[in-house]
Specification:
- The protein is an alpha/beta fold.
- 29% of the residues lie in helices and 33% in strands.
- The protein is built from seven helices and 14 strands.
- A hairpin with a 2-residue loop joins β13 and β14.
- α6 runs parallel beside α7.
- The N and C termini lie far apart (46 Å).
- The model has no long low-confidence stretch (mean pLDDT 90).
Length: 277
């Protein structure tokens, strides 16, 4: 039976950076997917994950710098998919990689990725995913083992395989993301990606040349030690899912674990950092 969702339609003035902050905080509270609108953003959460005080710790709602109001409605999963199909357009990153839906025509991009995100995060439209794709396009991944932590749709793991990485583990704690990643891995005929449902605890005794983690700031800081322990000597770690003002905390934690920042990307106050050990 399909899951029902609550859709919170937020009207935000002024929109930036309030919308980005709102999505980040809602994501940490359990909201699974977002659609930006002309007036703000619609945020979706499964009714089974919803709780009455779900917005209690959303600090941006209490800020005097923004005016934010919202309405709530119950949404069937199938209706979300119909809305997504009406609004999802292909994107091209770096003139080499196109991320599109199954109903879009095949492109002549070097890396033509087909993603059906449903309720999962990671179509390439969000700044953090876009920047992680940029990193993977620039670097040589041939023959390198990789981890896509918080894989969402599996798009970064899929691109890593297309760039020659193997073997690859894609991990997400959310069951919907886990199932969606399996679908997308199969859809793109990837043979070197294993998808796992779980969190950092399942990484014990695993080792990788490349760690990709596009996750909320607090989860990154909490689990960074585990990621660092998974990284082989001379390994590379790509991190995103946080803002420019979070860099000091992220960098301090990485430095304490023997990693050095070597590159920074930024889009609309979101950042992606590349570390080496």
């Amino acid at each position: 039976m399909a899951s029902n969702y609550f859709g919170y339609d937020f009207k935000v003035t002024p929109q930036q950076p309030a919308v980005e902050i709102l999505m980040a905080e809602l994501g940490f509270a359990g909201f699974e997917s977002f659609v930006e609108t002309e007036d703000g953003v619609i945020a979706y959460i499964q009714t089974t994950d919803w709780r009455e005080n779900i917005l209690e710790d959303i600090d941006v709602l209490k800020s005097d710098a923004f005016s934010i109001s919202y309405t709530i409605e119950t949404i069937e999963q199938v209706n979300w998919n119909e809305e997504w199909e009406k609004n999802f357009n292909p994107i091209t990153v770096g003139e080499k990689c196109t991320i599109r839906a199954p109903f879009h025509e095949k492109t002549d991009s070097e890396y033509d990725i087909v993603i059906e995100p449903k309720m999962s995060f990671g179509t390439g439209h969000h700044e953090t995913t876009h920047m992680m794709v940029e990193y993977l396009l620039k670097d040589d991944l041939r023959g390198k083992s990789a981890l896509d932590m918080g894989c969402g749709t599996g798009v970064l793991a899929i691109l890593a395989e297309m760039k020659g990485a193997k073997p690859i583990d894609a991990v997400d704690y959310d069951n919907w993301c886990y199932l969606n990643s399996i679908e997308n891995v199969e859809r793109n005929k990837c043979g070197n990606i294993a998808v796992f449902e779980g969190d950092a605890q399942i990484l014990k005794d695993r080792k990788y040349d490349v760690v990709i983690a596009n996750i909320n700031r607090n989860i990154l800081l909490n689990d960074m030690k585990v990621y660092a322990e998974c990284l082989n000597p001379n390994g590379v770690m790509y991190l995103s899912g946080f803002y420019r003002n979070d860099i000091p905390d992220i960098e301090t934690e990485c430095n304490n674990l023997g990693m050095k920042r070597v590159e920074t990307l930024e889009k609309n106050q979101w950042v992606a950092l590349k570390f080496v050990n």
